[in-house]
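This section describes the prediction task in plain terms. A model, or a person checking by hand, is given the sequence of a single protein chain and must write out its three-dimensional structure as a string of tokens. No templates, partner chains or ligands are provided. The sample shown here is typical of the held-out split.
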Amino acid sequence: MKKISLFSDQLRAVWMLAFVAIALVFATPLFLQPSNMLNVLLTAAVVALIAAGQTYVIILAEIDLSVGAVLGFSAITTASVISQHGVVAGLAAGLAVGALAGLINGVLVTKAKMPSFIATLATMSIFAGLTLQFSQGNPVKVTNEAFLALGQGNLLGIPTPIWIMLVLGVLFGYILARTRYGRELYATGDNADAARLAGISTDRVKILAFMISGVLAATAGFILTARLGTAQPTAGTGLELAAIAAVIIGGTSLAGGRGALLGTLVGAVLLAMIDNGLNLLNVSPFLQSVVKGAVILLAVFVDRNSGVLMRIFRSGKTTTAGPAKAAATGAPAPFLPKVAMISVAGLLVVGAGVTTAVRSTDDGGAGAQQKTATLVISTLNNPFFVSVGDGAKDQAAKLGVTLDVQNANNNDTASLNQATTALVKKPGVLLLDPTSSEAGGSITVKANQANVPVVAFDRVPDQGKLAAFIGYDAVQAGKNGAKALCEAVGGTGKVAELQGLLGTSVARDRSEGFKAGMKECPGVQVVAVQSADFDRGKALDVTTNILQANPGITGIYGANDEMALGAVAAVKSRGLLDTIKIVGNDGIGDALAAVKSGEMYATNAESPFALGQEVAKIGHAVASGEKVEESRVLQGRLITGAGVEEFCSYLRGIGDSATCK
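The expected answer:
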């Protein structure tokens, strides 16, 4: 019987997982808690399923970039059908969407002879666009208890998504390793021409692989929707990259013909473990991406240099001349891999003992909890939220509170996973800026179950009990922008609206407010409405196109200052700053400078630094058991050129030295 090398492609990821686990066991006493181990596997479930399908495709030396968009499209379809026809019809519809998407990808690659990178890049955009069109950017709520059990249920104390991951992992692993189709898949990936000459229908093999990828992406969409209790139009954004990373870490070769599902599943768990450990250790959210990137580079390096490891750790039989000759010839001792295994197991056992002892002597009292807080913020890729974080850290330092900041990167899944990990640490309070009201609701319910109070800000969670809420009125912000723009253009003319990231609640609310405000200005016609994703660079391009199509435009509203500044750049490049008035929202430093110089007419300033300070202050009061105002809705103030200096003086007075430089 052929022995399996302990350093084979399939088990390489297991070794990486073991070494990371050892490091985390000794780094934090929270890591080995049973609840945290379940969190790691629960976090890995969605990516693992997408990555399992991606493995089939990558073994063929192809790629599927559309899986994240397919997940979102399938999720929206499933949720919509469930509300009308029940859970069985909804699941069938979602799987059909996934299979059809995979069929389209497979046909484009095989029949249209398109490179899979280009084909799936195009369909990613198509499916994402169809999702937004079908949902109109709105989430679809699911209340069916049977469906919600797929994401929120438990079996033998283990969350249902973990069981689904394991069952489907075994099933599709068996198909890959033990069936005729699996052998044909490997043969096609290794040498498609030779496989074709051997009588294998390589087109059929490839189409079926893409369909499997689509079906598993749809299944991941079921789980994510059930966990959140709602289908989000942007749910799968970025997950295709995480899935590809899991496949690469798991030892599947991008050149095709080599790989196994075991390695992929371990790779997904490893990525989840790294995220979990970095969150537990309060590592800067900016550095977390660096660490994950380094792990991927290491995995690729090991893949490209596997021969070196095999020579070092080869586990062959002892030569007839015995160990002495082996030592003399420089050959590795045959027991070296076994020693490595025993060492790893021993370190894990010792680490478990040490962390258990640390936890038993840890003073987890209320006094200690009052001095800790976790801030889960929707994004740190936007100056507004960076300033919120700075304000929260400034106030936390004044109060002597240890503040752990987590960046969700505008991703509901990341926000949910980070908050779940944070709850393992039992912070005195969870300060939550939800990526959406629906994701915030799921997080709040989990925090309620863990007896951790929640102070939400910026968006109101749609379920669960909050200790307090504070935030600016996004609808009123849009109305303020409309009022300022109406004044700027003299109550007449043609204007354009730059909307935020479609599918997010703040984009919907600000746009709703702007539309309501413009009804109070009947002499102004809104001739163009486009999304620029809250991004300055995209707003530059979108505004350029709007100006080309509407030469008589006299005003532009950006739902945030970043987009307004992008519009400024586009208008300025055409020499039209004197004739086109621009209004933004947020009051970031660059926008205030633009208002002062006359490049922007106004910004609806919301002082994010002050918001962060208030969030931290209220959070500390809640953790200390003090009574606080349950809900406080703040209003921004319109800042025009004459009011910039006064507003900047106010900011400097509260300790914000970065905004007005």
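For orientation: The mean pLDDT is 85.
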